[in-house]
Amino acid sequence: MSDHKDNENYAANMDDQFITLVDDKGNEELYQILFTFDSEDYGKSYVLLYPASTDEDEEVEVQAFSFKPDPKGDVGQGDLYPIEDDAEWAMVEEVLNTFIDDDGADY
Predict the structure, then answer these.
(1) Comparing C-alpha atoms, which of 102, 104, 91 is closest to residue 48?
(2) Which long-range contacts (CB under 8 A, 24 or more apart) does 22-27 make?
(3) What is the rounded distance in angstroms from the CA atom of residue 64 to the CA atom of residue 41?
(4) In sequence order, what are the residues at sequence separation of 6 or more whose Cβ sits closer than 8 angstroms to the Cβ of residue 28?
(5) At a CB cut-off of 8 Å and minimum separation 6, what does 87 contact?
(6) Per-residue pLDDT tens for 41-61?
(7) Based on CB atoms within 10 Å of each CB, which residue in 7, 24, 34, 74 is the most buried?
């Protein structure tokens, strides 16, 4: 799982499966959405991303953020919020590990 990120912003690409992250220096990188989920415990929605330039056989660093869903419940135009609480990170990692175990993916 990724290190905590500070002040990341994003702009949704034309395809709903991609997000462009812009760091505080203005550098842009295209990420693919791995999946989104909601947590009743934290009352938030989360998105997990990985670099779109990653080869299929390559190990990836997954980024995770909370977000406010658009009216359709998707990651729309808006902000991604860093996950700063260790217990919240543990929950996100548990969901990711369950996804990997269920999917058989090698992320």
Answers:
(1) 91
(2) none
(3) 17
(4) 20, 21, 22
(5) none
(6) 999 999 999 999 888 888 888
(7) 34
